[in-house]
Amino acid sequence: MENNTTGTGGQDLPDSGAGNFPPRKKTNLLRNRPVFSALFAAIIAVSGFFAIPGILPGVPIVLKNLFVVLSGTVLGGWYGGLSIVIFLAAGLIGLPVFVLPGGPGVFLTSLGGYLIGYFIASLAAGLISGKPRQSEKKITAGLCLRLALASFAGFFLIDLCGALYLRIIDPSIVSKPLCWREWFRFLPVTR
Question: With a threshold of 0.85, does the pTM exceed it?
């Protein structure tokens, strides 16, 4: 009688190449994108409470803008936009994810324009950066340029929506013309 040490009752198992473990299934990353959208929404919510003091008083550098644009470039336009929708929905039902106390009243403050801009920026950054092509498995100049343009467009759209919305809701700003000179004064290079 043969000594069976495999514990299979005398049956021979096909070799899976990794000892006695079954072959590992490849996971489809596309199925996990809604999970990553929720994860980015949580990261965006937490990052809003970290701010770096800016050069000008009252104008901090917030990490939230970085993660908003990053959600679009990493997840793509639609799933990056979904992460912003999850973030905004959490704030609208009253969870403390905004810098100001949550609820629908946040959209009546100066923060409302930036919140609208978050969705537009994430969607635009994802659509501009697009999916990497099969030939772009390595970092190339074209891929870096596309990501840089997508990031610049995302940051620009956040500021544009915030400035236009602020101009709409604040009567003292309505009388002043919106010009590029006012935007460039916030850049440290032009001081």
Answer: no
